[in-house]
Design goal:
The protein is mostly helical. The chain is built from ten helices and five strands; from the N terminus they run H-H-E-E-H-H-H-E-E-H-H-E-H-H-H. Helix 1 packs across helix 5 and helix 2 runs antiparallel to helix 4. The radius of gyration is 18 Å and the shape is globular.
Length: 223
């Protein structure tokens, strides 16, 4: 029994070390590779309305520790949605009784929404708005692969099962993202994320990264 426990502990440590090594190495290479895209996107965002290039928002991280997540801004500066999403003290989900409902679907502004900038439509379609999260990965707040970081207003309502989603670092992409659609409900997302947590390993991460790459180049939306 003791040998099995030591073996499991060693395996968990090995997975943790290999995952961080993958995050740092791939994150560094990715940052260098996409630097021209980052510079061009920053220029276009600033040129369109002279507003801030980045959108920063607090999210729930590993063990429910909050951190500031980075994205390229895709909404107009005077759009009220930016203020609402950024203020984690205002909770529009207070009417929930208990856990986050399984049929809940997080709605984001999309399509022909007039609050989205012209460059915002492009960077959202190809997930370019998520690229600044490479900095979160290098800082150690996030991983390349993991459950998508949730906003604090929602994680406040997690029950014990849903809180398991916070047992690993959140990721830029994840098992739910490569297996779902933008209208996936919360119950299904939790199901995918918990499966990943129970089965995560180095090779699964590589598979998810490859599947994400295919989705990005085809312009397919993610969750």
């Amino acid at each position: 029994m003791r040998k099995k426990k030591k073996s499991k502990t060693f395996k968990n440590l090995l997975n943790k070390v290999s995952k961080r090594a993958l995050d740092v190495s791939l994150g560094t290479v990715a940052l260098i590779a996409v630097s021209p895209v980052l510079v061009y996107a920053s220029y276009k965002i600033k040129k369109e309305d002279n507003g801030p290039v980045f959108f920063k928002q607090k999210r729930s991280g590993l063990n429910n520790e909050p951190f500031e997540m980075y994205k390229f801004r895709s909404m107009k500066v005077d759009n009220k949605v930016i203020g609402t999403h950024a203020n984690n003290d205002e909770n529009p989900y207070d009417n929930w009784k208990g856990r986050v409902p399984d049929d809940f679907v997080f709605k984001t502004a999309s399509g022909n929404n007039p609050n989205i900038t012209n460059i915002g439509e492009v960077i959202r379609k190809y997930s370019i708005d998520e690229l600044p999260q490479i900095l979160n990965v290098l800082k150690g707040d996030m991983s390349i692969v993991g459950p998508r970081p949730e906003i604090i207003q929602i994680t406040r309502h997690y029950d014990q099962e849903q809180q398991r989603r916070l047992e690993v670092k959140p990721g830029i992409t994840g098992w739910a993202q490569v297996n779902g659609r933008s209208d996936m409900n919360h119950g299904k997302k939790i199901e995918y994320d918990l499966w990943y947590i129970d089965n995560n390993n180095f090779w699964l991460d590589l598979k998810i990264i490859w599947m994400t790459f295919i989705q990005v180049i085809t312009g397919k939306g993610s969750v």
